[in-house]
Amino acid sequence: MYYLLYGFLYLLSLLPMRLLYVLSDGIYLLVYYVFGYRKKVVMNNLKIAFPEKSGEERVRIAKKFYHHFIDSFLEVVKLLTASQTFVQKRFTMDVGELNDLYASGKSCQLHLGHTFNWEWGHLALTKLTPYQILVVYMPITNPKFEKLFYRLRTRSGNVFLPATTMRESITPYLRTQYLLGLVADQNPSNARTSYWLNFFGRPTPFASGPEKGARAGALPVVFACIEKPRRGYYHATVSLGAKDGSQLAEGELTLRYVRYLESVIRRNPDMWLWSHRRFKHAWKDEYADMWIDECMVPQQAVLAG
Q1: Which residues of 124-142 are buried (b: 16+ CB within 10 A; e: fewer)?
Q2: Would you kindly state where each structural domain of the chain is located, as residue ranges?
Q3: Measured distance CA(261)–CA(272) in Å, rounded
Q4: pLDDT one-digit tens code per residue, 96-131
């Protein structure tokens, strides 16, 4: 079955981008209007994030999101036959901060959100920095797609570390000068051990692991923003989040990142992955010791009202 899937997607990847985007437009009509894939989740997330917008405005954002979402999937399929030159032409990046950090001899963490198209981004970065690129990822539950995506993701020599075994998997690379990429807006599995702060005005947990790793290793941290000037072309900007994670008070790095992420999403709301349940964890008073926001600790009774 894997080889049938691979063969079909391989043939699909041979199509020029203009035809893949025609196909994408057709799939969009089915996904949005016929199947309504996770539409309730998307619209509920948008209502929470943008209560000030009208229903029509949120629908427009949702429709653009679905176009980006389907485009990104077919763009990943294109990687089965696309050259590195193809990727470099269509995904550009400002890497001045990374070059300066590499020259200093330090390893580094890179934090970014689920903004399209992160799959092209790490491949483009391979040729733009001398760092050994490590990426922490959550394995896909479907074994056939996991095998396929793993093959695509590691084709340029980047190392993908399963989040489930990250501590053990990173050990062989700790003596190298690495850039550790973390998609740091994953919904944490354990709300009790996560940092809590306001995200779009709602108490929301963020995994504490990225910050704890930066603090333990005294690592610099950069934040990345991906924008889409036009269809099929992306540009990423890298900004310094902290020169040394260990020099910040606990929670400060996560707070800086979340404020950065929210500003990125507000500028281009249709570019973020609204189909995952970012706001599914409800605040409980027992999380008060993990609250890191500048605002007061929320009260469960107030939230319930």
Answers
A1: bbbebbebbbbbbbeeeee
A2: 2-304
A3: 10
A4: 999 999 999 999 999 999 999 999 999 999 999 999
